[in-house]
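## retry 2 of 3
previous attempt timed out at serialization; input unchanged, resubmitting
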Amino acid sequence: MIYQFDFTESFLRPLAEFAGFFTLVLGAMWLVYAVYEAKRRGSVKNRKVEDWNFDVTKFLKFFT
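## retry succeeded, writing output
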């Protein structure tokens, strides 16, 4: 009597039928990220070169 709830039929099958909805949600997330990156860079075409030159030894000393 504990397993009266059929997880596959009640939850997974309807979830699989929402594939189009999830595709739309993913597209909306991509658009929000694209707008965020464009605002962060200041332009759509320009690449923002980030400075990754820092002293790694100070960072690694934290772990020892």
